[in-house]
Amino acid sequence: MPRLVRNLFIFILIITFIMAFSSSYLSLSIDNLAYVLAIGIDKGNDNRLEVSFQFSNTKSATESGTSEKTPPIIDSVEAPSLSTAVNLMDTYMGKELNMSHCKVIIFSEEIASEGISEEIYTLINDTQVRPSANIVISKCTAKNYIEKTSPELENLISKYYEIFTNSSKYTGFKPNATIGDFFNSLICKTCEPVAILGGLTTEQPENQGNNHIQENYNVKANQTPIEGENGSENVGIAAFKDDRVIGELCALETISFLIVKNQVDRFLISIPDPDDSNSYIDIYLTPKNATTVKVDTSSSSPYIKVKTSFTGKIYSMSDDSKYLEPDTLNHISESCNQYLESVLTDYLYKTSKDFKSDINGLGKYALGNFFTTQDFDSYNWSNNYQNAFFEVEVDSSVKSGMLITET
Q: Model pTM?
């Protein structure tokens, strides 16, 4: 009899567990979820926001397989807040929105100029949103950016969103700006946030003179001379002061940002030819050592010294090049040093005087000058950064990139 009672108890326990968890299992089934790949946030007409959601088209992917492109689904809703927009879209889709696969959040330049802290806090507070999701500030509407994004080398848009920032490591033309980093910078006392600058490839670049080589380094999103099927592009940085966008950085300035941040592995740059003032030499540079920063806060005008070093290989060649001669290489190395020192100095003063925003987080190097957090707060780094003076030192060693040597 006790054995029968025990078996009956076990049977009832199993049935109870099955009934308790069957409903939650069904509610979390893939068939009951709508997976969001990207979120676009614009200024609304009748409400504060117009929020666009890009969904993965799982039905199309199942029918066509992965060998063909699967067109995503894009739906928009106007709402007073991001949370309300999600709730309304849940109702419309008939499925619960799932943010765990969201790779990118796009804000229009218009809404970003008014402040986006409320949306950032809402997204960070959502446990499904990954801190690695990238933030893009679009020169066009966020909805238009999403609609025009059509990668040529990827069948799945989710794969493109996952890897499109990889080029920051070997070109330096855009940062890898995530919502996690943005939030940390937003609440930080020693730095300010940045985001990727996005736009459309349909815009024609403005005529910047005859110096066509340097034009490629002065472009930003909406200005590149690129033509292709992918209608969107990402070049440059959107700089913030608190939660408002206050300026933009071109490709060359973005390289400078990444150099100071120690976030670029290699990059191509055009420097003035020391033997011909009308010509430029293409050099591929690789950081030799990590960039070092020292900050003197003995006065209300911080004195900031930045030191960096590179090894380089010459990429541009001509039939009369003498890039194997030591004197020529020394002259090119010196020209590279002078050029980069000028570029980095101009960039740093732009962040200080024009933006008044420490987007590189140089304030963290000043923390060691103070005994307590209260002392640092009293120094008021955020305001004093605009009074900063900079000294930049670059040490480059350029070698010939020729594989065949002179005989």
A: 0.87
Tell me which CATH code domain 266-407 carries.
3.30.300.210
7 — pLDDT class (breaks 50, 70, 90): low
Both tokens of 250, joined, read 């071109």
Could you report the per-residue pLDDT of 373-394, keeping only the tens digit for each? Answer: 999 999 999 999 999 999 999 9
- The Cα 136–Cα 40 span in angstroms is 9
Domain boundaries, the chain: 26-261, 266-407
